[in-house]
C-alpha cells in the first residue's frame, strides 16, 4: 500500500461555542434553535460479512474525511496566518510556564475521593497542582468544567446518543465573555468555570492571570510545528451603531486575538459572510451553521476549533473489516473496525471497572479510550470521570505489544447549551439581571448559545507516564484491546495538559 493511498487523517472541527447571541431584553427572547438544527444524515448502512477493501471506490470516498473538504488547495495561510497574529504580540507572559510554590495538603487526605467537604476538595486540587505550571493548572480546572458540562449534557440526551464536546473552546469563549461582565455576572462565570478555585490556590493570582493564561495557551497550543494542526479562532460581531467599550475591545484583542467588528444583522449578506468564513476556517467541515439571525441581536461571538492529526501508528487499511459492535445488550451493528498490532500504553481501572487505551498522534497529543467492561458500566464511568481519575490512568499505564481493534466513526453534533450552563450556576447570563456593563452601556441578555462540532476517526488520522495506586493495576496480561461496545474518548494535548475534545460513542454507525 502506498503512503499516498493509505494517508487518512483524523479531523475534528468544532464551533466551540458556535454563537453567543446577546439581544436587548426589552425585545424579548426569540427561540432560534429550529433555524439552526441541521437535519441529521441517515445512518450509514452496513452490509454484513463484507470486507471494506472489496467495496467499490465510491464507498471509500464517502468514508474518508477528504470527501468533506470542498475547498481544494487551501493552505493554512489561506484561512489564518497565525504567525502574523503571534508576531503582533510577543509570547512574553513567562509566568504561565512557572511552577509556583503552593501549600502542600496533609499527606493523610485521600485526594482520590470525591468529598463534599470544601477543605478536602481544595486539598485535592492543590495536590493535582503540584509540579504543574500555571497554564497546566488552569487546564486542570478547564477539564473539570468540561467533565461537569458533559454530565449535564448527558442528562439531556438519550442513552443511545453519541456525544461530542470541545471543553477547551467553551472555556475560551466564556473567558472572553467574562471580560465584558459586571461584578456579579463575572463572579458567576468564574465560579462555574472553576476559575475561582484556580485563583484561590495562590495569592499571586488575580483575574487577569486567567486571561493571560488563555493568551499563553494560544501561543503554546495553537501553532503549526508540532506534527498536527490545531486552531482556535474567535470572531466577535457587534450590532451596527452599538457602542462597545474600549477596554473590552482592547482586552479581547490582547488576550483572545479577537477584535469586535460592526455588523448589520438585518442584512442577509452578513449570513453569507459569516458562513463563508466559518466554512473556510474549518476546511469545509462545518458548512453553514448560521441559518438565520435575530435582527434584534446586539452581539455574536463565534469560536472555532479545528483539529487534524495523524496517528503515530497508522492502522493498515487492509486490516479494516466489518465486525459486530454491541450498542446495548440486545442490539448489534456491523461497522468497519480498524485493527493494528504494536506497542500501546494501556491500563485497567478496577474501581471503575473499565480499561483505558492510549492512542498517540504525532506531536504529543493523544486520544484516550475508556472502555467499560460492562455496557451498563458507562453510567458510572461518566459520573466519576475527573482530572484526578485521568491522572491515575496516565500514571499507571504499561507499554506492551497488543492487538488493538477500534471502530471507524464520524460524529456530527449540535447542542443548545443554555439549560446546561444554567444548571451549573450561570443564570445571570440569560436573564435581565445579567450585567454586561464591562462591554456596553446597553441593557442586554444572552439569548442563544450553540455548540456544534464534527469528528472523523479513521485509519491514519489521533504521551503518557507510569506508577501505581490503590485498586489500580496495570494491564500486564492483556494482549488484546477490542473496542466493540460503547466507550468514552478524550483528546489531550500533553504540553499544556489541555483537554481539547471529549465524547461518547454508543453507535459508530450513526453520526
TrEMBL record:
InterPro entries tied to this protein: HCII_serpin_dom, Serpin_CS, Serpin_dom, Serpin_fam, Serpin_sf, Serpin_sf_1, Serpin_sf_2
Sequence ranges assigned to domain Serpin in this UniProt record: 147-508
Signal recorded as keyword: yes
Gene3D superfamilies: Alpha-1-antitrypsin, domain 1, Antithrombin, subunit I, domain 2
UniProt keywords, alphabetically: Signal
Signal peptide: 1-27
GO cellular component: extracellular space
Top-rank lineage group of the source organism: Eukaryota
CDD domains documented for this protein: serpinD1_HCF2 (cd02047)
Molecular-function annotations in GO: serine-type endopeptidase inhibitor activity
Keyword Kinase: no
SUPFAM superfamilies membership: Serpins (SSF56574)
Gene Ontology BP term (one): blood coagulation
Similarity comment text for this entry: Belongs to the serpin family.
The protein's name in its UniProt record: Serpin domain-containing protein
Lineage: Eukaryota, Metazoa, Chordata, Craniata, Vertebrata
